[in-house]
Amino acid sequence: MKKHVSMVRFSEHISDILSYGGLVLCIVVFSILSQGRLFNAYNIKILVQAVCVYAIMAMGAIFIYSMGYMDISVGSQVGVYCILCIVVTNKTGSLLAGFLTILALSLICGLINGYVAVMLGLPSIVTSIFLMSIFGGAQLLIMEKLAINSISIEYDMTFFKSTEFMIFVIVVIALISIYLYNYTQLGEYVKSIGANELATSYSGVKTVKWKVLAYVFFGICVAVGAFMLTARTGSAGQGTGTGYAMDIMVALLLGGMPLSGGMKSKMSSSLIGSFTYVILSNGLNLAGVKVEYSYVIKAVVFLAVILVTCRKKDGVLPR
Amino acid sequence: MKLKKMVALGLAAVMSVSLLAGCGSSSDSDSASTDGTEGTKVETKHHKIGVGLYTDQGQSVEAIHAYLDGIQDVIDCEFQYVTLSTYDEATNLSLVQDLISSGCEGIIMTADMGTNSILAECESAGVYTAGFLCDFNQSYATAHDEVFGNEYFLGTVCDGYAVPTKYGEMVAEKVAEAGYKNIGVLTFPSWAYPNQAEVDAAFRAKLKELNPEANVYDTVELQFSPLEETYLSEHPEMDCLFSVAAGASFVYPILVGAGKTDIALYTTGFEATDDIENFGTNGNGCFKGAMCSAAETIVYPLCLLIDKLNGTQYADLPEVSERVDCEPYIILSNEDMDKMQKTLTCTLDMADAVFSGEDVLNMCASYNSEATYAGLVEAMSKTGLN
Q1: Which of A192, A279, B207, B319 fits a 20 to 30 Å CA distance from B234?
Q2: Eight-state DSSP code of residue B36
Q3: Are residues B94 and A42, on separate chains, in Cβ contact within 8 Å?
Q4: Per the CB < 8 Å rule, is B138 touching A149?
């Protein structure tokens, strides 16, 4: 009997074990294959820099994925935000003006994603496709208007791209996210919506309100992530942000986030997943693995995690 | 169900480990062959060079790999490859950081995207960079001092001519000679590739001079996607198409699909597939022209990096880094194609390379005191078909 109980407990926590185990395995394997380079000071610095943007956006995305939803417009949004931040900063000479512009825009997008989808009775994926097309087009139009391939910021970003500042931002966003997710109604209800939206609604919870709030918080995280990306590269172009929607999804899944959301969702998935994803890419390069093999290895790892974390019997795709 | 998942997971893990193990053994074999450099007469210093290519597939990439594999033992360098993005700065910065972290002392880049931040990173890490198959036009026009004036950027060799009007004029001569009457021109967007607009302008000017009767349609910019088939129906009388934008990939399949392979196609790029089989009098004869640069032009950044890492430099090295021309493979006749098929770019055989490993050592100031920068630049003019 005791053996059976312990087996049940083990299976309940298998996704946690695998996500932490995956990170530990990546660290162990790549520290051996890279002959210790994984832990040199320079590499730790670049790992933090690479993780920063993913982690910030993934922490916001947790609120969306917990509801069983997803947002594929992130990449296009990031691209436009980076370009706008640079354009506004260069025009006004004020970095704050640049940041506030993209923050305002991200809040509007959050409202569209959350509120409009509910009002029109559309699945959230539809509004995010709509936003992806709008932002993708806007990104191309702005760059064509500027008639250059890439635009550089004329503000000194040395402070904002320092590793210390990046760690500071990650910690601040993590504290806010953990608080909202674990100690407020927002976190409780987004998980509840993911587990059973109808039951949540019948129990008197105004699901529309919490959905909108979740998307708004995600929007803020995207804006902060875009700002940090701008600080890191100092430039943006027509392809900036490409692939971020998929990268964040992969990072969350590697962190043990169930595709269908619900009560098993955890904030730790965002940080664990972001680090695993970045260490996987970084470690493969450090180990000198050929590009063609690295694609296969990433795919195999991704598939392995999906097999374990998808727990719904009635399908694996998010709503 | 759980059992199935665990079995699948186990198999996936086995696949991963097998792949990693395979990569590891390949690396061992490389290092073993590196030890066998008895043929090298000069005493060389070992260096690790990162190579960031603009794509991970295609004939050019295979040729670059074949060439560097062929010379690495002689020049005592090992190479680590990454695939750069031509549109995302952050990706390129991360990849360059990975190369630095993995011990690369120098980096050769084929894309000008995020160059400022990459150079700042390289400067702080004491790693030198140089360009190849890339004119760094964006940096040249908008950040010349920051990039070309940066001591950690050693210069670049273009993909063909830095001022490409000559190529446009050569194609115009062939088109005029063949007597084509209705000609279309395709380019990539001018904001991304301003040089292609120069090729287009030179082509039009020369063709107007040689055949004023020829009708050249307005240029259509391909947005990095295949040609729309409607373009062909809008110009049913078109008998020639000059695609400055990778015609083998973006145009030829559309011509085949529309049954329009009777249109003469002059294009940049070389894939060594359809463009050989259907060139000139071969196959359907659709391809009348192709153009690409030799993999061996990587010698330019390589020599600059090796010298810098060895603490030596040419006596005539210019103070500000340069972008230099290379003589591209311009294939405009059956004879040209015959010659092309004997190049390393086509055969992937080191025996067909323009420069051997020993040649490379001789071009480095640190291994040959008589080597000059002028000699290195001149060598780039010997990479064409003639």
Answers
A1: B207
A2: -
A3: no
A4: yes
Domains along chain B with CATH numbers: 43-160+295-329+353-382 (3.40.50.2300), 165-292 (3.40.50.2300)
So where are chain A's domains? 48-242
Nearest Cα to A209, choosing from A181, A192, A186, A176?
Answer: A186
Cβ <8 Å between A232 and B88: no
pTM recorded for the entire structure: 0.83
- Determine contact: B142 vs chain A, CB below 8 A: yes
Closest CA of chain B from A207, distance in Å: 34
Half-sphere exposure of B298 (CA within 13 A, CB side): 28
Residues 6 or more apart whose CB falls under 8 angstroms from that of B66 comprise: B295, B344, B348, B349, B350
Contact between chains at B87 and A292 (C-beta distance less than 8 A): no
Q: Which residues of A touch B20 (CB under 8 A)?
A: 29, 33, 287, 289, 297
Of B20, B85, B90, nearest to A33 by CB-CB distance is B20
Please state the ipTM of this predicted complex.
Answer: 0.82
- Of the candidates A146, A232, A292, the beta carbon closest to that of B93 is on A232
Nearest Cβ partner of B27 from A241, A281, A288?
A: A288
Residues A308, B24: C-beta atoms closer than 8 Å: no
Tokens standing for residue A124: 């959230």
pLDDT in tens, chain A (319 residues): 556 656 656 666 666 676 677 788 888 888 888 888 888 899 999 999 999 999 999 999 999 999 988 888 899 999 999 999 999 999 999 999 999 999 999 999 888 887 787 778 777 788 888 889 999 999 988 988 887 778 889 999 999 999 999 999 999 999 999 999 999 999 999 999 988 888 998 988 888 889 989 999 999 999 999 999 999 999 998 889 988 888 898 899 888 888 788 888 889 999 999 999 999 889 988 888 877 788 888 888 777 766 665 555 454 444 4
Q: Is A240 on the interface with B (CB under 8 A)?
A: yes
Output the DSSP codes for B191-243.
TT-HHHHHHHHHHHHHHHHH-TT-EEPPPEE--SSPPPTHHHHH-TT--EEEE
Dihedral sign, Cα of residue B138, residue B142, residue B145, residue B147: negative
**pLDDT tens, residue by residue, B121-156:** 999 999 999 999 988 888 887 788 889 999 999 999
